[in-house]
């Protein structure tokens, strides 16, 4: 929670969520190789598109972590509703964020705004992206070729098929633990009220902020008043 910068409202409106499989670019790639049929699903890519009015700090990475855990069978789909029930789950369980590698804020829309585009800047940006694409596409092709050859070698010479299982290791930190601990059994972070009180005591937020949070008693003000009376 980015309370230190004055954010105390954490209600955001999500307009749509869509998850789809990316289309194959090449019928001869790793996914469609006849000698690697067991690897088909392991090397396909999916994209999650989330549209909202505004996003919180690390909100998308947190969402993706939960989706990864559900997809891996470590959590039930019902965990989503439990975490969103802030009356019964007032403190967020501790878990790592999904990797930022795949995160891309690619579009923003504003009412009554007309964008003006500079031709030269667009050409420079396209040129830079083309260079990046060429670099990563070359590495991707090399890795695909090595994976196909080595997996085929393992199958032919050792009579063993290695099912893809390491592609998601970079996606989120929770996947690296040996003994998985369910989210609802983990230690929790501080509640919003506790975070606000922390910054009020450090004088980074005004004490009046506590009154703006539903169900939060202004403990800091009460303690201050008591201290003042004791001193008098």
From TrEMBL:
Q: Which GO terms describe its molecular function?
A: RNA binding; tRNA pseudouridine(38-40) synthase activity
* One Pfam family it belongs to: PseudoU_synth_1
InterPro entries in UniProt: PsdUridine_synth_cat_dom_sf (IPR020103), PsdUridine_synth_TruA (IPR001406), PsdUridine_synth_TruA_a/b_dom (IPR020097), PsdUridine_synth_TruA_C (IPR020095)
Listed EC numbers: 5.4.99.12
Which stretches make up the Pseudouridine synthase I TruA alpha/beta domain? Answer: 9-111
Q: Which reaction does it catalyse?
A: uridine(38/39/40) in tRNA = pseudouridine(38/39/40) in tRNA
A cellular-component GO term for this protein: cytoplasm
One GO biological-process annotation of the entry reads: tRNA pseudouridine synthesis
Q: What keywords appear on the UniProt entry?
A: Isomerase, tRNA processing
Q: What class of enzyme is it?
A: isomerase
Family according to the record: Belongs to the tRNA pseudouridine synthase TruA family.
What is the name listed in the Swiss-Prot or TrEMBL entry for this protein? tRNA pseudouridine synthase
